[in-house]
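In the laboratory, one determines a bound structure by crystallizing the protein with its ligand and collecting diffraction data. In a computational setting the workflow is compressed into a single prediction: the sequence and the ligand go in, and a structural description comes out. We illustrate the idea with S-adenosylmethionine.
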Amino acid sequence: MLALDPYIAADARSHIISQSFFKLAAPQAKSRAGRTPKMRPVPLRRMEAWGTVEPRSPTGQDGASRPPAPSAPGALTQRRTRPVPDPSPDARRSAPAVARNREPIAAQLLQLLPATGLVLEIASGTGEHAVYFARKMPHITWQPSDPSPEARASIAAWTAAEGLANVRAPLALDAAAADWPVGKVDAVVCVNMIHISPWEATEGLMRGAGARLPPDGVLFAYGAYLQDGVPTAPSNVAFDADLKRQDPRFGLRHLHDVAACAAKNGLALARVVEMPSNNLSLVFRKVMTVSPGTGAVP
Ligand SMILES: C[S@@+](CC[C@H](N)C(=O)[O-])C[C@H]1O[C@@H](n2cnc3c(N)ncnc32)[C@H](O)[C@@H]1O
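The predicted complex, in structure-token form:
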């Protein structure tokens, strides 16, 4: 059971990582007595922040899309006294950081992505970015993906709830896999995965994007990175330690390592954009095709 309001929890802590959230808050989670709850729970499942937890915006932006508080006076009493059967639990999850970072990321994507075409999103998570970006870019077909079944259920539920025709059903895609279940794409977007996954996922991201993008096609990779000659913000130092405690294979990557890995796959680091809360947007462009085993072909 989630006793804390994740929004309050996220803003109160420096960084929160909860990859196991889906299991903790799964709609069919059993009660302590071992029975599946029949009462309608919180209208919209919420998840603690993945990635860097950005400070609450002074404009209140991060609260704009909040669902109603589950503890609103009256609501709980009503649920206790008049149980409501819940035939279709809502699979939508919510990550508070998305409401804070989606607009700055969208501003970058609007400049970078082609006006039309197929955009593959790697590690879509809750799916909130997918629906937000797809709504802003209606002529693009958005292809979300995630290896987590709970994430894919959330993505599909958000897409249905928003009624968006330009978002495809989410793919089960592990970036580290040798083969991806998708062919050529016009651009690739990846938000907050590189530091919250083993390095093999980044290698796979570069390999998969390099093989699928057209000449000059964009791979956009948002997240927190370490940079040579740039002091790491204390919040990112703490974040890195948190990540490594969770899984020693996780952690903030050096920008030069990510760029070198991309270059091996024909992707050149074209631009680095400073983003709020010590994050960066990395913009890679496909400059050459790499044939496995035979090297790069300009
Ligand atoms: C921090 S969440 C970010 C989700 C979303 N992009 C966002 O910013 O809210 C990290 C996501 O990476 C996904 N992920 C982890 N390892 C992955 C891999 N090897 N390939 C693809 N996605 C992966 C997780 O399932 C999770 O949805």
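The longest strand covers residues 267-275. Keep in mind that any predicted model is a hypothesis to be tested, not a measurement.
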